[in-house]
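ok so i was messing around last nite and threw this chain in just to see what happens. nothing serious, just curious
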Amino acid sequence: MKTLSVLLIEDNEIDAEITRRVITASGIDVSLQVARDGEEALQVLLQRERPKLILLDLRLPGMDGWEVLRRVKSNTELCLIPVAVLTGQSDSRLMLECLELGGNMYFVKPITQSDAASLLPAIGKYWSVMERLQARSDERGPPDARAAGGR
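result:
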């Protein structure tokens, strides 16, 4: 698997460092970028090179994680990026709300080595499948051309 780019959106230095160490210890080749708040995260996400995974804390200064999640999942350029919500609360109601907004996973902080070991390879496989589907779609051409007999 090639390097997996991950955006960690976390304002707490200690939590960010714990997450960084756990990801490093997983042995998976990860490029980790950290954004300290929602506004910074959206600036990073709107750049040309987008991460393959977002690790999102819900409690952020300024624009909170809930709003970041809403914006990511409502943006056609970003909505396919998996979002793993990281929170200090083990609350099933919060987990359901995150999933309803489009969050893909929910972890109670601190993230563990076991969490990373199961999460990161799955994300790599997800993007491998997405790239193959995109390649097939590109080979076939746009849907309008196929409908007009341009197979």
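not much to say yet. The CA atoms of residues 9 and 90 lie 19 Å apart.
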